[in-house]
Amino acid sequence: MDSNQNKLLGQILSQLQGLEKRISLIEEKMGIRAAAIPVYLPEEADRPAEVAPGQHELEFRIGEFWFARIGIIVLAIGFAFLLTLKYENLPAFLPPLIGYLLVGGLLFFSYYSRKTFGNLSRYMMGAGLVLFFFTTLRLHYFGESRLVTSPAVETALLLGVVGFNLAVAFRRESIYLTVLSLAMVYLTALLNGNPLLLFLLLTFAAAGFAYSSIRFNAPLLAIPAILLTYTSHFLWFINNPVMGNTLRFVEAPFYNIWFVLLYAAIIALGQLYLVKQKGERNTIVVTTLLNCLFGYALFFLLTFSVFAQGFSISHLVASALFLGLSILFWTRVHGRYTTFFYAMLGYSALSAAIIAEFPHPDRFIFLSWQSVLVVVTALWFRSRIIVAANLVIFLLIFLAYLFFAGEVRMVSLSFGVISLLSARIMHWQSERLEIKTEFLRNTYLAAGFISFPYALYHSAPRSYVILSWIALTIFYYLISMVLKNKKYRYLALGTVVLTVCYIFIIGIAQLPPLFRVLSFILLGVFLLIVSLVYTRIRSRAGRPEGAGEGRPNPDDSA
User: Fold this and answer.
1) Helix, strand, or coil (residue 449)
2) Measured at the alpha carbon of residue 419, what is the angle toward residues 472 and 464, in degrees to the nearest 5?
3) Which end of the chain is more exposed for a tag (fewer CB within 10 A), N or C?
């Protein structure tokens, strides 16, 4: 560059500096703050732009967390497949040795990166524990030659690995590692050929999930417990196809059905403790429902298909267990929905036992008497839900009896007695249930109003039907007088109307002449007596004849 060019460049720079000073003076006079002028620096061109808080959050969450999780899962699966190869030309000890070296490397990296790469460290630890389990599996399975030839020794080694994994999971207070470790218990149980050990391991795993849900205050841990426990038992029942066995139902041992009830009880007790500590949250209600559905469905399948010996006794025991759990949930924590689920499951098991034990149609009678027990326990639990559900079930049983009983006998009068008894119990303890309407009681009374005449019509000799219905009317009036309840008078009036309709529609055509005459005379005398009684009651109340038509009497009591 020559002297003229240097001189020209100096003049330009001098003018720019002068302009900059003048602009600064103008900005100072106008009170304008000078803005920083960005300067492009080539060495900063490749630097990533800073991200404001919340900006591109999804992108960074996927890149930082989910890619790490997926990558470690893929890596662990790849190593697991690597361990399952046969390696015909290698010594038998070499693949497990490589696996244990990989496990050591993963655990070493996880431990020393726990502060700098906390998220990556947790998942590396999980991958290491899974590979530890698969490497131990490689000692007996997958290869042509086996380092461990005894299945019992292999099971013991696997259980040792599971124990180590659980210790690490609890030490690190990790739900993720705990679920992984307990899942290994289920796999060990399925690989084992001893049924008793399998049931014991499933029991231990269910208890482990129950304990973990309490320790970590995680009610949702009951979901993997329910799915894995009942599914594993079901896989054993269909001959454990996980081990490549032919699909069929296993026929022994019979005592396996009791372990299903044990699983349900263990999971329920874990839920009970959580309800006691935190209340009846929605998650606990959902897991309770799942425990009831999966547990009893498996129990019913086992006892109905192959292990049908002693079906009634088995379901009676199940009923006692579930009703006992409902009592625990009510007395300990006053759980509204949890109590309802276990109580209804107990009643369902009792119904199954009754249906299996008693012949048709007597089973309908015993099922109807069961509804009284349901009403009594519902009063104890203060559960309107149970009462309402029981009413629906009772009506279904009554309708099923009407349509499918075939021969109707005098014992069918039980339906009417049960209806009146249930209505009376509900009226007696209406405050305990906090029932605001009379719908439930009126429905029971309506069922009694139908069942009594129906049973007498089909059970009594045709010539004595009118006489039996008159006796029923007198019975209603007597109850009304004793209980001072006008609803039973309504039942009596309705029965009288039925009797009159019967004698004019059916009695005239079907009754023998002598009984037809006696029936008309008897019914007429009875109607006159009833009329005189009403007249006497009205006169004692000091009201003129016909004055109270359409208005309730002051002595009527609900």
Assistant:
1) helix
2) 25
3) N
Q: Cβ neighbours of residue 184 under 8 Å, at least 6 residues apart?
A: 130, 133, 158, 161, 162, 165
- Please give the Cα distance from 62 to 75 (Å, whole number): 18
110 & 149 share domain: yes
Task: Give the integer Cα–Cα distance in Å for 209 and 268.
Answer: 11
For 237, 352, 355, 374, 451, the CA distances from 401, given in Å and listed in that order, are 36, 16, 13, 19, 10
Contact present, 83 and 135 (Cβ < 8 Å): yes
- 292 & 441 share domain: no
Considering the domain architecture, whether residues 326 and 429 belong to the same structural domain is answered as no
Number of domains in the chain: 3
Residue 19 has pLDDT above 80, yes or no: no
Same domain, 292 and 411: no
The more confident residue out of 107 and 58 is 107
* 365 and 348, same domain (yes or no): no
Structural domain boundaries enclosing 401: 359-459
Distance CA 53, CA 484 (A): 76
Distance, CA of 383 to CA of 369 (rounded, Å): 19
Residue where a domain terminates, one of 308, 333, 357 = 357
Out of 74-83, 241-250, 280-289, pick the least confident. Answer: 74-83
